[in-house]
Design a protein that fits this description.
Helices cover about 45% and strands about 20% of the residues. The protein has about 400 residues and is α/β, with parallel strands linked by helices. The protein has two domains: about 270 residues, Aldolase class I (TIM Barrel); about 80 residues, Arc Repressor Mutant, subunit A (Orthogonal Bundle), CATH 1.10.10.920. The strands form three sheets. A nine-stranded mixed beta sheet has the order 7-8-6-5-4-3-2-1-9, with helices on both faces. The longest helix has 18 residues. The structure holds iron/sulfur cluster.
């Protein structure tokens, strides 16, 4: 274990006495690289057996170090977790069961690429206790999918959702991407309707993000493709805000919609600033006011010599994270609780300054106060980056 973290173990253990942990494992392999992706993943699967073995060891080591803490959400993300062999998935699941107390477990999510799933794998995953699946669909248009470099077509994406249901995954989510060159508003709405018609319970809407060098960015810079304008993208988000509730999926976070009671409990913990431990290359963790990210480079990570990025938040930074994350949620946050916390930390003036700005935003129709609770309005959600910037 990293010496920086080892020194903090007593404080980490104390923080976990109050509430259960969320456990995230990162599987950094993909069959091919999508043209827009800047995640730390690789196509070199020769490292997969060693990485899976090391992940299982990390799970065991952390479970021991933290005193086998209670875990109430599990998330296997990537990359492409559905590239794990059945044996690797079994080993990792067993390692989690042995190292952590899963008695309060509420949800266990697997991410999967529609181009890599088969019924036997899904059934085994379901049998191991994974009860929710999140499929990276992105679009239901073969031209757009090819532009994104996805390894699957539209039919395969719908087939994967159906396969998952037949394998016993009642809890299914899909990702839908907005802002793809050549994607029209009517196409996004048609895709959203087709996805909801499969009976899934949850939809995540992501804006295509091209902030790093990637093949799609090169095509755009060279003028071969054009991104939709900010106004066009805003129109799409606004149309989805109207359409998805009509289809039975309510917004509960800036990018996420769910049927009643079907919110992602694991993802909620990020916005509620509850503790999570991320294991695997580039995985992030936060427990109490400690936050760290593992090194992203394979094979250095698999060999246990990757650099760790560690940070201890000061009281003002930790306080700012509560509204920064909480205002992403449609239910917003109880400002009275935040104010009391600020008072206890001698940070009341900072909290009052934020409140004054949020009350001014209410005057512009971007925030809504109900007694001492505040949340962003639908219009506020559309410009949330600018609003939430006050907390960074
Ligand atoms: S499948 Fe996901 S993680 Fe893998 S390259 Fe594509 S976008 Fe990136």
């Amino acid at each position: 274990m990293n010496p920086e973290l080892e020194r903090r173990l007593p404080a980490l253990r104390r923080a976990l006495q109050a509430e259960p942990l969320g456990l995230y494992l990162h599987v950094p392999f993909c069959l091919d690289r999508c043209t827009y992706c800047s995640f730390a993943t690789t196509r070199d699967r020769s490292l997969q057996p060693e990485t899976a073995r090391r992940l299982a060891e990390e799970v065991a080591e952390w479970g021991r170090a933290l005193g086998r803490p209670a875990v109430d959400t599990l998330y296997l993300g990537g990359g492409t977790p559905s590239l794990l062999t059945v044996a690797e998935l079994e080993r990792l699941t067993l390692a989690m069961r042995e190292a952590f107390d899963l008695s309060p477990l509420q949800e266990a999510t697997l991410e999967a690429n529609p181009g890599t799933v088969d019924r036997a794998w899904l059934e085994r995953a379901r049998g191991l206790g994974w009860d929710r699946i999140s499929l990276g669909v992105q679009a239901l248009d073969d031209t757009l999918l090819a532009r994104l470099g996805r390894i699957h077509g539209a039919d395969q994406a719908l087939e994967a959702l159906a396969l998952a249901e037949r394998a016993g995954f009642q809890r299914r989510s899909a990702d839908l991407m907005v802002g793809i060159p050549g994607q029209s508003l009517s196409k996004v709405l048609a895709d959203a309707r087709a996805l909801v018609a499969t009976g899934l319970e949850h939809l995540s809407i992501y804006l295509l993000d091209l902030d790093k060098a990637c093949p799609l960015r090169a095509d755009i810079d060279a003028g071969r493709l054009t991104l939709p304008s900010e106004d066009e993208v805003a129109d799409v988000f606004e149309a989805l805000q109207e359409e998805l509730p009509r289809l039975g999926l309510q917004p509960y976070e800036i990018s996420n919609y769910a049927r009643p009671g079907a919110e992602s409990r694991h993802n909620n913990r990020y916005w509620e600033r509850r503790p999570y431990l991320g294991l695997g290359p580039s995985a992030a963790s936060q427990i109490g006011d400690f936050r760290w990210t593992e090194g992203s480079v394979l094979p250095a990570w698999a060999e246990g010599r990757a650099e760790l990025d560690f940070q201890e938040l000061d009281p003002a930074e930790a306080l700012a994270e509560i509204p920064l994350l909480g205002l992403r949620l449609h239910r917003g946050l109880d400002w009275g609780v935040l104010r009391a916390r600020a008072e206890a930390l001698n940070l009341r003036p900072l909290c009052d300054a934020w409140e004054a700005r949020l009350r001014a935003l209410a005057g512009e129709g971007l925030a809504i106060w109900e007694a001492d609770r505040v949340h962003l309005s639908s219009r506020g959600m559309l410009v949330s980056n600018g609003i939430l910037g006050m907390f960074t």
